[in-house]
Amino acid sequence: MSDLMRLDREGPIGVLRFLQPAKRNPYSIAFVDELVTHLRKAERDDTIRAVVMTGGDHFSSGGDLVGFQTEIAKGARATSEMVDKVHDGGRAAYLFRKPLISAVCGVAFGAGLSLALSADIVVAAEDARLCEVFARVGGCPDTGSSWLLQQRAGAGVARMLVLTGREIDGRTAQELRIVEDCVPADQVETRALEIAREITQHPMFGVQTAKRVMRAAAECSYLEALDIERDCQSVLLCAHDFPEAMKAFSEKRKPEFQDR
To answer: Please, are residues 136 and 165 in contact by the beta-carbon 8 Å criterion?
Structure first.
């Protein structure tokens, strides 16, 4: 069994636990490899309908700067390949087809914050510490931070946080619309699981399609979004669950969905 992370189960919910909170779950190459492996495993498992990511007392302190030094010393090409490898973690999280929720306590710095923001929904502790730390170490945003933060908080807030390297707590992050929910630290995982359970009550094909539509629409124009919605909704309207919902509505009963 790995000492970096494991995939637990809470009914239809997968709970991806990072297992080194005492070290603040550094975002190493090994961490990325296991993250990708576990997310792919959860995606293939049809009994898992949503996933919650949690690091326990600390989500992730970000890039393993000490561990990266060996590759950086090899020059620009090796460094570029290493950064792209690190980006595999964010790609796997952002492209994950099922609902993904981050439960953030303690620190979420740099790549750790990027990973948290790659999820569909972020629940943060009131005293969580979030930081786009790149400027502090003479770097620029990576692991998707430049895009993810602007998508959530807007360009001005994103520039302020990136350029200052300012650390904010969970309450401020919610005020800035960087995270969706904020609760005391001892309630973070519980709240994330509550949201996941609420989502898993719905037909899975519809939920996954809705996630795909929302992600695609966020990256296009209004008219392009209408086309995306038309194409996806046309499939769902002819699938097994939407017709059942309409039939149940007309018969004044609860629908009996097949895609539970």
So the answer is: yes
Tell me how far apart the alpha carbons of residues 70 and 51 are, in angstroms, rounded to a whole number: 34
User: Which pLDDT score, from 0 to 100, does residue 148 have?
Assistant: 94
CA angle 8, 14, 15 (to 5 degrees): 60
Q: Is the dihedral of CA 227, 229, 230, 235 positive or negative?
A: positive
Domains of the chain are 5-200 (3.90.226.10), 204-250 (1.10.12)
Q: How confident is the model at residue 260 (pLDDT cuts 50, 70, 90)?
A: low
In terms of Cα–Cα distance, which of 2, 24, 9 is closest to 200? 9
Torsion of CA 207, 190, 15, 91, to 10 degrees: 60
Q: Which residue's entry shows tokens 């973690």? A: 89
CA distance 176 to 182: 12
Tens of pLDDT along 144-190? 999 999 999 999 999 999 999 999 999 999 999 999 999 999 999 99
What are the tokens at 219? 């990256």
What pTM, to 2 d.p., does this model score?
A: 0.91
